Amino acid sequence: MKIKAAENGPYLIEVNEAKLIKNGSEQVLTQKTIALCRCGQSSNKPFCDGSHKKCEFKGEVVEIEIK
Ligand code: FES
Question: Under CATH, which number does the domain 2-65 receive?
Answer without folding.
Answer: 3.40.5.90
